[in-house]
Design a protein that fits this description.
Layout lengths: L17 E16 L4 E6 L14 E3 L2 H45 L7 H48 L1 E2 L5 E5 L6 E2 L4 E17 L1 H4 L7 E3 L2 E3 L5 E2 L11 E8 L8 E6 L1
Antiparallel strand pairs: 1-7, 1-12, 2-3, 2-6, 3-4, 5-7, 7-11, 8-9, 8-12, 10-11
Helix pairs in contact: 1-2
Length: 265
């Protein structure tokens, strides 16, 4: 009776590639939302599929704010001029007060001067001092008004800047508003992407995460020198029991959003 023996060869798991499929996406996607309220004057839909420049893609009405800015700038000029004039008045009044004070100090102990005369000089000196203090108070108020006006100008310029939305250097995927729309803060204006590099997102099992730094990454069957740029240590909330990992790659010559085969050996 012949007996047949079957030899079972156990190969190390490391000889088998761990294969994933990942979509090649732009390295960053930005949801650009409105920070202000207002009517959309224009939204350049023709920019969809193009790389943005410094020119605005979406423009929100800022006519009122620009007029307010002009008024505030005039107000600031007037306040600065008034402050300079008040400084000159304060210098003159300080001289008057010092003269009145010196005269009062000279006569206050003189027996040749009557009490009525001394009281009159004291009253003049006090009035001079009060006028000086009033000018100093006016200067302090002017400085506060100038500071408040400068702050309002900064806020208004920031508001005006936010009403002109550009996406310089970014690939404009979608313009989400149209001319005539009224937007509030938080409304999506456009979606733009950084296509200077690509991103591959994989979801790895716990065993795959071990010793990733020592493993090679193959893209569509070709060995690469790529490394994982990010590996989360907490399991994904959607892909349960899997850990999100990312690979940053050079910007493709062809299309984004293609599925690539990623092998980890």
């Amino acid at each position: 009776m012949k007996r047949c023996f079957f030899a079972i060869f156990v190969l190390p798991l490391t000889l088998f590639a761990q294969i994933h499929y990942a979509k090649l996406e732009p390295v960053e996607t930005y949801q650009i939302k409105s920070a202000v309220s207002g009517k959309v004057l224009f939204a350049d839909e023709k920019m969809e599929g193009r790389v943005g420049s410094s020119s605005p893609v979406v423009k929100i009405d800022d006519v009122v704010e620009k007029e307010q800015l002009k008024a505030l700038e005039v107000t600031l000029d007037v306040l600065n001029e008034t402050l300079e004039l008040t400084k000159e008045m304060e210098k003159v009044q300080e001289g008057v007060y010092e003269r009145d004070l010196a005269y009062y100090n000279r006569i206050k102990d003189l027996k040749t001067k009557s009490k009525t005369e001394k009281d009159r000089v004291f009253a003049a000196m006090s009035a001079s001092k009060n006028q000086l203090l009033s000018l100093k108070e006016k200067m302090a108020n002017l400085k506060k008004q100038i500071a408040d006006t400068k702050y309002q100008i900064v806020k208004l310029k920031d508001l005006i800047d936010k009403k002109s939305v550009s996406a310089e250097g970014l690939y404009i995927y979608r313009v989400s508003v149209r001319a005539g729309d009224y937007v509030n803060p938080g409304v999506l204006l456009l979606t733009a992407m950084d296509t200077s590099k690509g991103r591959l997102t994989l979801y790895l099992d716990a065993d795959e995460v071990k010793d990733l730094s020592s493993k090679k990454i193959f893209i569509d069957g070709k060995e690469s020198d790529l490394k994982f740029s990010k590996v989360l240590k907490v399991a994904d909330s959607v892909h349960i029991s899997a850990y999100r990992a990312e690979i940053i790659v050079e910007s493709p010559k062809g299309l984004f959003s293609r599925l690539l085969k990623v092998e980890i050996k």
